[in-house]
Amino acid sequence: MESISLDALLGDGDLASDDVKACCAAIYESEPVAWLLGGQLHPGGEALTRRTAQLAAIGAGDRVLDVASGHGGTARLLARELGAKVVGLELGAGAVAGARAATAEAGLSNAVEFVEGDAEALPFEAGEFDAIVCECSLCTFPEKVTAANELARVLSGGGRVAIADVTAEPERLPAPLRAAAARVACVADALPADGYARLLEDAGLEVTMRESHDHALAAMVDRVEARLRLARMLRTPQTAPYRTQIEPAIELARLARRAIEDGVLGYSVIVARASG
Amino acid sequence: MHGSKPGMPATNDQSEAGEVFLELTKSICPTCRRTIDAELAARDNRVFMRKRCAEHGDFESLVYGDARRYLEIQRYNKPGDRPLELQTEVSEGCPRDCGICPEHKQHTCLGIIEVNTACNLDCPICFAESGTGAAHNGDGGFSLDLDQVERMLDAFVAAEGEPESIQFSGGEPSIHREILPMLSAAKERGIKLVMLNTNGIRLARDAGFAPALAEIGVHVYLQFDGFSDATHIAIRGRRLQEEKRRALDACAQAGVGVSLAAAVERGVNESEVGEIVRFGVEHPAVTGVFFQPVTHSGRFLDFDPLERLTNVEVIRALATQLPEWFREDDFVPVPCCSPTCRSATYALYDGDDLIPLPRLVDVDDYLDYVTNRAVPDLEVKEALEGLFSASAAGGTERTGERLECVACGVGLPSELQEVAAKGFMIVVQDFQDPYTLDVRKLMKCCVSEIVPDGRLIPFCAYNSVGYREQVRESLSGAGANGDAAGNGSNRSTTRAAEAG
Predict the structure, then answer these.
(1) Interface residues from chain B to A (CB-CB < 8 Å)
(2) pLDDT tens for residues B262-310?
(3) ipTM higher than 0.85?
(4) How many domains does chain A fold into?
């Protein structure tokens, strides 16, 4: 897949919903974005993944779906540390290939597999999974009701879904963060924590736990902001094409940081359970 | 400053509601120095030490300005490494058996040798109680000779194997006739970082001094408390701005790296800490700044123990004065000592923007010793431990290599690794004094005073418990010819006496 430049992050074009999903998936595969995120593709990193898995009561032998599995780090962690049998679902073909390769290298191919597919139309049978983790991705799905219903459908009786995601009060977000450009960075299309909880409850699940992790999001925004400033320090020919985009990106990161401090933007883990 | 009168019952009318008892430890009476119990408690999100001497009453002192952070950063408490050799036995218990005794939890990251008590200044603030008068030069003071210092260096090498760093101090060490051979002797023993702690007057006036330090490979630790006349008068008793400027320019010209060392006192110069950093990053000789809340031992100004500065207040002042550069959480608790003793950061600076290193690497992933998870990269962890250590200074070759390793480990492009390698170090270190001494922290202290009889006495014990006075007395006047050195015969008798 073609690497996507910062244009995609910072362009002001209005994106159709399919484009947004594809763009999102592709962006997380792109080198500049991976670099900006500093190897940590979701807030809280592995520590918060462990916490999320703990809240979803994932244990040895559980069949687990990791939605938007990216390069497969979480899927491998769940298999390696908890002994789960994991399926990673990912829209980006490049990411799936990368995830498979990394998993083979880690010797975990018998416990972890990756499927290319869309979270709004899960390629799985009803009741296939004991647990689902969905990290920092539901906020980017344009059809959230459909996605939530799909999660509920593939969950077994008594199964748990843990959503770790960006929370936002959209009407209080500053305009630049609401723009389409921010959507791919998981911000403008996020819901308040209540909104995710309602989605899951409307899908027939029972919300059992909510935990705020705003600090993890702040740390991630800080990391991106710092790396954008580093990029600005770097006066090489390779960075020349990005130079005009760096300033607005830094401004966006600072707006996000302020929004977190103001409680308009945050990060939460929400756990729900299927009856049975 | 002091609480109830001796013999009065402890007051119970003061409500303890809203106060959280944290731990019981041992401290000393600030008046008579005897060992007494001390309680640490959190109140209004600050941590206070409260203690009672049967004879001198109640004492209470602020020890950390952020209770939440105090508790959170305990996870940075790195398991200690024992030194190769111990010098004393356990007899009376901490802090009376220094050192280093078998109960101590850490080796020495930074050794200090005070070569004299004489100084060319009479600062109103001086924990070493040095000065210009006869009391510091003649009978009341001492001046070590090269032979003594070499034996002390040998003791340090015996205890540490390959010592990381040493600082020559005083008095004013630059006025000692043999300071250059002493510095060379440390270098010859393979000590990696050799520092001279100086007020800079000789550097400013003696054109040959900076080049001589450059030739030996010495890093200068320069007293630098701020810019205003009021700051200079309050802390040093004299305006020294011109001397500081000339000393720094001489170091720049000779290629000597300098860490600025600021004593920070509430109401005096905490408003200047940001400007000191701003000045430091711009000056070609300066590679870092050390901020030290004033140690209320020796000579100090009137102060309120409940409103003294701790690391938190200094870090907060930096974040407030340089909001575009720093936040409080950019400062990392240094794990080799007790995590509340020292915090540090490194900053990448390109002449325009400044980025603290902890924004680029999640230090918590590497330096959390309590949850003890698998670390992402062992080389990066080792480099970070070397950087966030009491033995580190900015601008040295080792610091540069370690910064480059971290920069490489977190995927910075090579051009930025070069910027990172020149990272500017900022340290905030709250040394303990008789008001704040906590043996729990002292037992992991990794800054030691090397004394002529070969003991390595943890710095805060040296300044608080009575060791400094004892050593000075044993070395001063007629006894000042190093009789005590090396033979160890007085080890059992030079323990800090219970005064009062």
Answers:
(1) 348, 350, 352-353, 355-356, 359-362, 365, 373, 410-413, 415-416, 419
(2) 999 999 999 999 999 999 999 999 999 999 999 999 899 989 999 999 9
(3) no
(4) 1
